[in-house]
Write a structure and sequence with these properties.
Chain lengths: 116, 330
């Protein structure tokens, strides 16, 4: 049985901290165990993934909490231009097409987004 | 913000479209690509052979602008700023900069990527594969527009998550998957690696015949990723003819020559002044410093392991001077 990337119930952020049609980075944990999470929002729909591009195993953002939105519902890795869908984290264009970001299930509790 | 990409209708004479991005204009004819930009003396036009241009642009697109600098030749190229991309003409050429004839413009990555893909798609004729060695793809790049080769230019860099051949990871190359042994490597044994794990380690040890894997490479000068430990990447590749770009890195890059021979031309990254010539024979290891640009020449198809450090933090460490541009102080 695989260990969840983020423990269920872990608070990630408020809904309004992730811009509509945009992305937001949340760091969970500390030191070597710290995990960078990218939250992607379209209206009320929020998805979350481990912030690690399957192309080179590095974060999608070159600067903290700064992501490239490459069109409606698409985020582009800032390093080598892989493009991922908000909805399922699948790479639809770029150097690792067909690969997928590691999903982190989330749920809403009022205004809060928590790991599910 | 720069002006958006524009393209002109196909030329009645050659059939190729022309493109504009920012202040740069791109056009091609039967043999050449023309890159034009404004200078204090009026428009400057730079010429490149169309096959050279397409091979370079293929790498820039497939590699997502790569690590920092991709020089198409001594004049034109791009810098990856990781979120934005600089396109330049003459800005890393001492002659152009001393005369004030260079131009650099910055674009959002999605915008320049879309433009480059459009150029590549329109200017690559049927039968021409910019990833292939000249003997394999011939002269289909020449002449008036003749169809396209979207399948060839749509190939991506092969990457693994952990290691090629692991369950759920990038598969090995086989005949069935469309990867026959390249004619240059017909003598490479194809036997698979044997793994005999100690009790308790079954399923936790993995090995492949890397030479067999490489012998089935269908591209040149296009490293795949065969194994990854965090951001430590082993990127083996097969090389023939000329590396289509001069790569100006923003970190140290290691080359381990597996077979045959590659000659490297090393230049200063900023000025283009010659710095060294390096001949790597099978078994040689070379480290390319972070302050140079390099271009390789391989007469016979050869096997090269490129060892890359993908950690984005090393860029700032080099830029700030916290670490030197070379790995060893002699």
């Amino acid at each position: 049985m695989s260990v969840p990337i983020v423990a269920p119930g872990t608070p990630l952020c408020r809904l309004d901290e992730t811009p509509d049609m945009g992305a937001h980075e949340v760091l969970v944990g500390e030191d070597r165990g710290q995990v960078s999470v990218i939250l992607l929002r379209q209206g009320e729909a929020v998805t979350a993934f481990r912030n690690r591009c399957p192309h080179f195993q590095i974060p999608l953002n070159a600067r903290p909490d700064s992501f490239l939105i490459a069109g409606e519902g698409l985020v582009m890795c800032g390093f080598h231009s892989a493009v991922f869908r908000f909805s399922d984290g699948v790479c639809v264009d770029g150097p690792c097409k067909g690969a997928r970001l590691q999903p982190i299930p989330v749920r809403r509790d009022g205004d809060m987004i928590l790991a599910a | 913000m720069n002006a958006p990409t524009k393209f002109a209708p196909a030329s009645n004479e050659t059939g190729y479209k022309s493109f504009t991005l920012g202040s740069f204009n791109f056009s091609r004819d039967e043999y050449f690509v023309y890159i034009q930009w404004p200078t204090k003396n009026g428009p400057m036009t730079h010429y490149m052979s169309a096959d050279v241009f397409l091979r370079a642009m293929m790498r820039d697109v497939a590699w997502g602008f790569f690590y920092y600098q991709v020089n198409f030749d001594d004049v034109f190229g791009t810098n990856n700023l990781y979120g934005k991309v600089e396109m330049f003409a003459g800005s890393f050429n001492e002659t152009f900069t001393s005369e004030g004839l260079n131009l650099t413009e910055t674009f959002d990555t999605p915008e320049i990527m879309a433009t480059f893909k459009a150029i590549l798609a329109d200017w690559t004729n049927e039968g021409f594969d910019p990833f292939a060695a000249p003997r394999e793809t011939g002269t289909a790049w020449m002449g008036r527009k003749n169809g396209d080769n979207l399948t060839a230019i749509g190939r991506d860099r092969e990457t693994c998550i952990r290691m090629v051949g692991l369950p759920g990871d990038a598969p090995m190359r086989t005949d069935e998957r469309g990867y026959p042994v390249n004619a240059a490597f017909a003598d490479v044994p194809q036997d698979a690696a044997e793994v005999h794990a100690e009790p308790g380690y079954e399923g936790r040890v993995h090995a492949i015949n890397l030479f067999a894997y490489l012998s089935r490479s269908d591209v040149t000068w296009n490293p795949s990723i065969s194994s990854a430990v965090k951001t430590n990447l082993f990127c083996p590749t097969t090389e023939e003819y000329i590396l289509p770009i001069k790569h100006g890195n923003d970190r140290v890059e290691w080359f381990i020559q597996f077979s045959d021979e590659i000659k490297w031309e090393i230049e200063d990254k900023v000025t283009g002044r010659p710095r060294a010539k390096v001949v790597c024979k099978a078994g040689d290891i070379a480290s390319m410093p972070a302050d140079i640009r390099h271009q390789g020449f391989s007469t016979k198809r050869s096997m090269l392991l490129v060892w890359e450090n993908a950690n984005p933090k090393v860029v700032e460490l080099h830029n700030s001077g916290a670490i030197p541009p070379y790995p060893v102080e002699f």
